[in-house]
Amino acid sequence: MNAIVRLDISSEIGTGHFRRMQILLSTLTEINPIYLIKTDNINNKLTDNVNVHFIDDNNEIDNIVYFTKIYQPKYLIFDLLKYKSNLVSEVKRSTNLKLISFHEYKDWDLSADLIVNYNTYSNFNLETNPKILAGPEYCILNPEIKSLERSNVSNGVFVNFGGSDPSNYTIKLLKNIQYHDTNLVFKIHLGPFFKEKEFVIKKYACQNIRWSFNDTTFFKYLKDSKAAISAGGNAMYELNYLNYLPIIVAHNMHQAEFAQNMVKLNGCIYFGMHDTIDWQALLKQLDFTYHRQKPNRIIDGNGLTRISKIILSL
């Protein structure tokens, strides 16, 4: 059976929505996905091996309805950073298909058949509507994360600010490491949309800096590091699952909200957003917590199984 999957990929929002849907649909082997993607880079190799149609903002609802007539899907799956106010209700009215929507904000439409927001947004635990799957028990983890076992001989600091690092936190951290007296090794992953890769590698070729550009080194550094610094996206939940107590900085207000609520659960240490971040204080905090990693493991790794069963029961 077919499913039409609507999401965005861009240098600003990164590739997280696409990766999340790929993980979900690799589990739902009964479903054949057809992706409708809005992007600023149609040559991105991430989409090379999937059935994809690129769309733009013009007549979005008409485009979705058009492709439902071609592919006759059972499901519509939306995973968007922000939803237009009438998108879900109009598509549902026009197609009458089972519609599942994934959210970062509380911008859902109850005309959807299933709504998923697995972030630690404020009062997620108070949701009572049975069609809303709320909070970290529904967190979708990369299967490779689940299969990792942290090394008993771990060292260094894993660093990742997302696929594009739109706030340039990598460069800000590197500038401050230069002026911080530390023997720690920083293992820095630069995502596929990171724009200043060559400049950064050349300028910050320091003895205590290690670089990662692909999944192999990404997972190796995750496994072998002792501490972590990250943005407040899905990586925050992955690090919690791996028993890190990560230091988190936020790219935007909703990441800040999620991180602040993770702090209340002893799942991370939050250090602010943009100009509020004191990078020298952050590095001093890292020195203090490097050998004191005692997080509360909030993510149990079973969210994908829970969501998959519910989708197939619709």
Features:
alpha/beta; 13 strands; 2 domains; globular; 314 residues; Rossmann fold; 11 helices; six-stranded parallel β-sheet
Protein architecture, described:
Helix content is 34%, strand content 20%. By secondary structure, the protein is of the alpha/beta class. The protein has two domains: 152 residues, Rossmann fold, CATH 3.40.50; 146 residues, Glycogen Phosphorylase B (Rossmann fold), CATH 3.40.50.2000. The strands form two sheets. It has a seven-stranded parallel sheet, with helices on both faces. Helix 8 links the parallel strand 11 and strand 12. The longest helix has 12 residues. The protein is globular. The model has no long low-confidence stretch (mean pLDDT 94).
Secondary structure layout:
Layout: E1 2-9, H1 16-27, E2 32-39, E3 52-54, H2 60-71, E4 75-79, H3 87-95, E5 98-102, E6 114-117, E7 132-134, H4 143-147, E8 157-160, H5 169-178, E9 186-189, H6 197-203, E10 209-212, H7 215-224, E11 227-231, H8 234-241, E12 247-250, H9 253-264, E13 269-273, H10 279-289, H11 303-313
Parallel strand pairs: 1-2, 1-4, 2-3, 4-5, 5-6, 6-7, 8-9, 8-11, 9-10, 11-12, 12-13
Helix pairs in contact: 2-3
Work out the count of structural domains.
2
Q: Beta-strand percentage?
A: 15-25%
How many helices?
11
Looking at the structure, the CATH topology of the largest domain is Rossmann fold
Shape: globular
Low-confidence stretches: none
